[in-house]
């Protein structure tokens, strides 16, 4: 019995040593089995999570993606933590020089409120007044007599995709003022969740993800953010959605990007209610 026990004991030890050696000496084999990505919450919720599942169904290659915001995605890619990143803003000063920004779809900025909010329409001048704290109560917009709680996506460093787009396209290059009515959070995903649960909430986010949330998207100058109004050019505030890759990326990453840009991938993006490159130039 002692001999048998000894064989079993040392057999287990040898197995563990072999497993450790195998894990440390076959990264290329394991790496080919999956891809990782992070970044823009609007992209993740809007199309990227489902696109990753569809790619796995077609190829057998698992694609693990998470949100966190465009800045997080870029930092993860810079640090070699992921194979690709998602962003809803273009390249800016301070971004790594060796990143390629590859557009895969279109989005528009949308202004969201709680489902119960009676306000249906807003103008861009009114949005600017909210961010400058000149409008602070829903009564000023023919709503209820209650303070407006404005949630903005603001990472610890850099500009989020929504914040950068809002600053450029809506606020004429200005930042929101510091105000008790404005609440910064770390990503657009959290912004949307806050508005979902806050009757007096207001925020700017992307149409691609807002349409999947339990929120109301306001009309802008009487125009509703819908797929048709976006591709017809009636709804304003159009912006691109990107996948980012390092210039020296793995062949498996190129295959995934090629799928996203190809006919099948673009049609799948359309099936998610997000505007592909095919439908809008």
Output the keywords:
281 residues, alpha/beta, D-Maltodextrin-Binding Protein, domain 2, 2 domains, ten-stranded mixed beta sheet, two-stranded parallel sheet, 12 strands, 40% helix, globular, disordered N terminus
Helix content: 25-40%
Give helix and strand order, one letter per element, not per position. Answer: HHEHEHEEEHEHEHEHEEHEHHE
CATH homology superfamily of the largest domain: Periplasmic binding protein-like II
How far the N terminus sits from the C terminus, by CA atoms, comes to: 77 Å
Structural class: alpha/beta
Q: What name does the CATH topology of the largest domain carry?
A: D-Maltodextrin-Binding Protein, domain 2
- CATH class of the largest domain, named Alpha Beta
Which blocks of ≥5 consecutive residues have pLDDT under 50? Answer: 1-31
Describe the main β-sheet briefly.
Answer: 10 strands, mixed
Shape: globular
Q: Could you give the count of β-strands? A: 12
User: What is the residue-averaged pLDDT?
Assistant: 88
Counted up, domains total 2
Describe the protein in words:
This protein has 281 residues and is α/β, with parallel strands linked by helices. The protein folds into two domains: 33-106 and 240-279, 3-Layer(aba) Sandwich (D-Maltodextrin-Binding Protein, domain 2), CATH 3.40.190; 108-238, D-Maltodextrin-Binding Protein, domain 2 (3-Layer(aba) Sandwich). It contains eleven helices and twelve strands. It has helices spanning 2-25, 27-31, 41-59, 70-78, 124-131, 161-169, 188-196, 207-210, 227-231, 251-261, 263-271, and strands spanning 34-39, 62-68, 84-87, 99-114, 121-122, 149-153, 182-185, 201-206, 215-217, 219-220, 238-246, 275-276. The strands form two sheets. Strands 1, 2, 3, 4, 6, 7, 8, 9, 11 and 12 form a ten-stranded mixed β-sheet that branches. It has a two-stranded parallel ribbon with strand order 5-10. Strand 1 (34-39), helix 3 (41-59) and strand 2 (62-68) form a beta-alpha-beta unit. Helix 10 crosses helix 11. The relative contact order is 0.19. Mean pLDDT is 88; it is low at 1-31.
């Amino acid at each position: 019995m002692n001999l048998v026990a000894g064989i079993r004991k040392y057999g287990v030890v040898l197995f563990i040593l072999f497993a450790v050696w195998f894990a440390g000496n076959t990264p290329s084999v394991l790496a080919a089995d999956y891809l990782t990505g992070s970044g823009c919450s609007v992209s993740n919720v809007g199309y990227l999570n489902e696109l990753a599942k569809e790619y796995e169904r077609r190829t057998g290659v698992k694609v693990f993606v998470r949100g966190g915001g465009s800045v997080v995605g870029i930092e993860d890619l810079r640090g070699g933590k992921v194979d690709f990143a998602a962003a809803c803003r273009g390249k800016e000063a301070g971004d790594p020089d060796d990143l390629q920004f590859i557009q895969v779809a279109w989005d528009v900025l949308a202004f969201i409120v709680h489902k119960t909010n009676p306000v249906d329409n807003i103008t861009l001048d009114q949005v600017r007044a909210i961010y400058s704290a000149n409008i602070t109560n829903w009564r000023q917009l023919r709503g209820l007599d209650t303070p407006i709680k404005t949630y903005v996506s603001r990472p610890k460093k850099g500009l989020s995709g929504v914040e950068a787009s809002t600053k450029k396209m809506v606020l004429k290059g200005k930042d929101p003022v510091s105000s008790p009515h404005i609440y910064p959070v770390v990503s657009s995903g959290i912004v949307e969740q806050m508005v979902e649960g806050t009757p007096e909430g207001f925020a700017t986010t992307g149409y691609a993800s807002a349409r999947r949330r339990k929120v109301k998207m306001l009309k802008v100058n009487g125009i509703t953010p819908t797929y048709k109004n976006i591709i017809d050019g009636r709804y304003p505030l159009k912006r691109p959605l990107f996948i980012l890759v390092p210039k020296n990326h793995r062949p498996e990453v190129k295959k995934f990007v090629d799928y996203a840009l190809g006919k099948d991938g673009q049609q799948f993006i359309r099936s998610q209610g997000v505007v592909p490159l095919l439908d809008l130039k």
